User: What shape does this take?
Amino acid sequence: MLFVFYAALYRFALIPRALAAFGLVAVVLQLAAVAMPLFGQGIVFLLLAPLGVSQLLLALWLIVKGVSRPVSRRCAPRRCADACRVPG
Assistant: This one.
């Protein structure tokens, strides 16, 4: 679920791509850490830490900067001024 979330953030560039890519790598590391007991190994808790860091960075980024809004193609600044002009 988090992989899809970070992939969507990366794909649509709602946050800086470096932050979204770090989140994707962190999710993969978490999956590897959680899957280790299936292969007879213990959980390496250091592999879980990057996901916590990425979640904190994402929260801070959204609090401080918010998400970037894409410019609508339908209403570019020049067209809006012409479309909103009242004839008279």
Summary: The mean pLDDT is 86. Residues 17-35 form the longest helix (19 residues).
